[in-house]
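Progress note, project year one: complex with nicotinamide-adenine-dinucleotide.
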Amino acid sequence: MERTTDKIRLGIIGCGGMASSHAKGYEELAGRMQVTATCDIELERAQEAATYYGAQLAVADYHELLDHVDAVLVVLPHDLHYEVGMTCLRAGKHVLMEKPMGNSEQECIDLIELSEQVGRVFMIAYPVRHHPLMVKMKELIDDKTYGDVFQMSIYTEQYTRYYDGHWALDSKRLGGGQFFSHGCHYVDILLWVLGNPVRGTHLGTNYGTPWMEREGTSNMTMEFENGALGMHLGTWGARGTRLGSSMHVHCTKGMLELVFSERRLYLHHKLDEERAGIKQGEVELLMEVEEGGKFTHHEIHHFLDCVQYGQRPLTDGPGSLQGLRCIWRMYDAERNHVMADLRGLGLEQDWRQVPLGSGSESRA
Ligand SMILES: NC(=O)c1ccc[n+]([C@@H]2O[C@H](COP(=O)([O-])OP(=O)(O)OC[C@H]3O[C@@H](n4cnc5c(N)ncnc54)[C@H](O)[C@@H]3O)[C@@H](O)[C@H]2O)c1
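Model obtained:
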């Protein structure tokens, strides 16, 4: 197939559920990239996606698209991230890898090192970081507009039930449970917002989500160097919800509340000390976005900036590895009935200084 475009040519590998979410923002990216090839082991899915994107090639074996793309978006079951990521990097492709990067620490290290050797962009897809409400909230936090953050609580109450035979029901393929698969977004966010972690705990259960081999419900708390606490309470078993997917950031002058389902960022403040608990303070709407969804096109814009202008991805391999190391250490600590030591695992800390195997439960 002849090269027919000057735009960045993207191949999509894996055309299942998450690939459909990526499709939503495609129009906004069409000026700078073109999906030239799609792949799914179920060829029909690849063909449907190719029709949607106007891609010329749809294949069932990802090796066959490598000559027709500059970059790939890997949207595959977690146990395939490593093999496919390594092959694409070796072929000189830039890689946007769906989270989590890999199922073991050694896999992640190999991917990071290879991306450095071949000089290609290797970014992990954590779209929450690029959501406009999150971006606004991070600016307000960094500017200390409402003082210092001392507690960030993240709630994700979902009903996520995979059908029989789905890869995500197998904890080896998933790489863990809900905490690893979904909580990785929020460990990433907590490190980004609150800085270097010190210690943490995780408790998970599959009570209420018997379809999960490992935990379907997960409660995690981390303490950070400055004394702030961060937590993620997540479940894939919610039969009802009010909190949905939301964040509460308690600052010394008010509480920021981000409600993804309402597409809004609020400020709660002026709580009357005497009447706290009886009467709420004042609520201000700080920002609202018109459309719902995951805004994955914002993260793809960032990926394209990295490819085009040589920028370092906000969610690069080393940073993402630090987040996964936190999770693996908390899983280990949970098994051993102790608190996890998370020192040395901040985003800015040298990922190479962490001894291999510390905290990685699925050592390669
Ligand atoms: N960021 C988010 O909000 C979010 C949400 C859901 C999933 N994800 C991530 O997206 C990735 C995919 O998850 P999903 O929910 O789309 O799974 P899925 O099962 O819906 O889709 C995976 C697709 O990969 C295909 N596939 C399997 N083996 C293949 C192979 N060897 N070659 C080519 N295609 C193959 C399957 O046929 C399927 O269509 C995972 O990393 C997951 O964690 C991210």
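The mean pLDDT is 94.
Residues 13-19, 39-42, 45, 62, 75-78, 80, 98-99, 125, 127, 181, 294 surround nicotinamide-adenine-dinucleotide (CB under 6 Å).
No further modelling is planned for this target in the current period.
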